[in-house]
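Appendix B, record 7
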Amino acid sequence: MTKADIISEISTKTGIEKVDVQETVEAFFKVIKNSMIGGENVYVRGFGSFVVKKRAQKTARNISKNTAIIIPEHFVPSFKPAKVFVDKVKNNSKKTKAEA
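Structure tokens (predicted):
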């Protein structure tokens, strides 16, 4: 499912025009991105957490030149789904596979 599909489905279910739904969805993602860029985590109860994870400095190898390089510590965005959400997906996946 793409972002366009999500916008279309929300528009159909709510009766709100696609343009307004698109602006809302874009604003939602922009708030999440800006919060994470600022180092803040975003928690959506029942859905999951958008968290900033710290990766420690490590030594890696450049195989083609046979040299060691240092990768400095850095931060990466991550998503951790809520337990309720994970359980619903697990239960639904089992039903779908059993029917096939």
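Remarks on this record: The chain has two domains: 1-40, 43-100. The mean pLDDT is 92.
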